[in-house]
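Page 47, continued from p. 46.
Same chain as before, 330 aa.
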Amino acid sequence: MLATVIACSLTSAGQVISEDWTRKCIANRSHDFGTVARGAKVVHFFELKNPTDRPIHIASVRSSCGCTFASIVDPVIPVGGTGKIAAELKTRSFLGKKEATITVSLDQPQFAEIQLRVSAYIRRDIVFSPGELRFANVPAGKTQSITTLIHYAGSPNWKIVDVCSFSKFLTADLIEIERTGSSVKYQLTTTLKETAPPGVSQGQVIIKTNDLKASSIPLSFFTEVVSPIRVSPTIVRFQAENKSEEVQKKRIFFSAKNDFRIVGAVCSDTRVNVEISPKSKKNHRVLVSFQGNGSSSLRSSPNNDPTGIPIQFRTDLEGGKTVDINIQFD
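Result:
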């Protein structure tokens, strides 16, 4: 009978870890950025998972080529959790075909190294300015536009034929503003819609050209939409197995940049009571209570909706801003 032997080592806590544990940390150790424009902001995040029974600590990262800057996003990866390593191309300082090996050094749960690889072709004939569409700190319900100058120098027949966005909250308007000999300039105006939800997102806008050798060139975008009012928590949890008529109470915190009033709360469930201060201030503390009724069906709303019980808070902020929270049962 044949037996497979896996080499193992002991951690400081005496636990056994197989020497191939790092293979389970990351599935894809290489990334090809493809063809990118000079000046474009190009970043890839490698995601590492922790398959061990102890936290992983990333001690350092280093790149074999100055064309790529590597950084640690999450130094500590908890058991069962994930962390990230960022690899950013320096597209203003380097041109042509570039490759780099990123060495990730781990010192916990034991010393190990993981090597990651990136590659790209940085075109010298196409320049983006600015190199990223960065919509930062945009108030919810507002629009914002960014203008990008795209400059190409090469074939006199070169054209941009289309602009594609992978976000339904971005629109793009492209116009050719100059064509002289082998030089052509385009102005790309990208607009973040007022319907963009609060939160952070990132991705790419793809510039499509008639160049058969490199028909698609990415332009990265970052959006950060900020709600005028912040709420914590947005989900309030009560104990479901409360069959008595005991009253359970929870607090919800509301905050905004300017003074505001919470003018009312709407909830269709009579078991829910909300206590609101009538004062206008930047920070509010609202008390939500739930009255048990002696039944065992607390997990459902009056309409037997298993998703919970919604409460809508109305404020005197611009447009009568409303905030929705949800009551759920454990």
